[in-house]
């Protein structure tokens, strides 16, 4: 059984993107980013929602391309249509059985690439095992929330904390069942 890990940058006020999906205020270089890229190499599978996948188009991702070549990638959506020769697999968003199957049969940890609504859906169904936060010293005020509108008072255990130059804080939490 492999863990499902939500590894994401978040503002102090709980947003993973600002208004209009703006991510420009988050670090794009430095040790916090280098450590994140190292962690990406440890994941076997990437899962995400449609909005997160389509967000990649802004940065040159072609429809059907895999944004993580070292991982098998699944996009959960009821409406996303991709070319027939896609390098990613689209799964109906409500198919929790597929996520449970991936968790049971993956060759390594599963990376939740976002976004907030998708992560909230997974958390509300008790499917996220580990939360890795790159806490940015910024206030965004609005945008995409860490878990969308979902919240159920879930308790977590802080297992790792690391302070970076510039005020970034990495925290890893084990999600209590």
UniProtKB/TrEMBL annotation:
Protein name per UniProt: Dihydrofolate reductase family protein
Domain of life, per lineage: Bacteria
Signal peptide region: none
Domain Bacterial bifunctional deaminase-reductase C-terminal stretches: 4-153
PANTHER family linked: 2,5-DIAMINO-6-RIBOSYLAMINO-4(3H)-PYRIMIDINONE 5'-PHOSPHATE REDUCTASE, DIHYDROFOLATE REDUCTASE FAMILY PROTEIN (AFU_ORTHOLOGUE AFUA_8G06820)
Pfam family, one: RibD_C
Source organism (scientific name): Roseibium porphyridii
